[in-house]
Specification:
It is built from 17 helices and no strands. It is mainly alpha-helical and 394 residues long. Helix 6 packs parallel to helix 8 and helix 12 packs antiparallel against helix 17.
Length: 394
Amino acid sequence: MKMLYDVFGKKLYGQKYERLFKDIMIIIVLYVGIGSTDYNIKIAPFILYLISGVFTFGVMLTALNSKDIVEHFKNMLMMPFSDKKLVFSYVLALGSYTLLTKTMIVWALIFAVGKFEIKTIICGILAGICSVLMCSVFYAYRKLRILFIIWSGLLIGSIFGFREMFGVVNAYVMMMIFGVSSLILIIILANTDGYVFYDRGIENITAKKEVKSHKYNLIWTYFYRYLFAHKNYLINTVIMWIVAAFIPFVMPQMFDKPGFEKYIMYMGLGITTLNTPLCILVSCDCDLDRGIKSLPGGIKRFFLPYGLFLFVNICVTYLIYLTFWQIKSGMVDVKIIIIAVIIAALSATLSVIMELFFPIRKWKIESDLWHHPRKYVVPVVVIFIASALGTLIG
């Protein structure tokens, strides 16, 4: 089993696991740097459990759907193998990659600014492990996905249920729930055919659909087809819209200071551009990048519509965000709407510039692309600008 894990591990971390050590060092520096500021935010334990579970599930699902990983897994099937060892090595490699290089960053940020008891931290880690196992089983058993969706819903419901009934989520009870769920999922994986992971992956990356021919608006047709061919990008965008609806209700509680609401509103404009994969369409396709730059007028004909496409998407996000802020506090006026449009245009322009001159390269699987540090340059700049505007105007 160790040999099988090494095969997948070297694909994810490099031949000598150098990438793992580099990522862990960056996370340690991030934790120490933010922790040394003595900046504290009151974060409820149930928020930690939800973030650990939902974020980990999303990253793990992206990794399982990665074309490179599926092809690598295909090569392993050419050799004699034990189903149990292959499945556990595959899930362990992708799961450890997800937790140690992606979820660990989120944990470092949360633990640096929030204070938690040891039992709460352990429960948050168990939530992440349970999420990795749940995602693996969810991916493997397509016909039974509705059952695993209900199961996941019950886990999330138990978090909110304990909070509503007792005012606090009991860490020991949640540890038992996550632990028992994880054991059951491990038993299911132990009886899973290794070919299932390859079959699901091939279905996702080779599925063919009827394609209609278009003479006009070819770039917009491309964007439309790309979104529906990559459902995870579309789903991630919808999730961002849902987050935009929740921010007006959550952030004011985290920064509970008199007269601080308007500043938070402006800062939220930057945060709602933070996690959209739409801003890396060129980075995720090297052939597209080369094709655009090699064709006469390709840069102008692609990147201008691309910028408009991003602008429209950001405006939709802002529309949802400001609508729910208006419902909550009624603070939205014409001035804020004009500033939101300006920030949306700025964000779209900066994203296009980054994709044109600094596309992300040397990524191993799609999850690396989604969480590459360069992707966060534009949102961070926009957050600072929006926050500065909130300070000056608010």
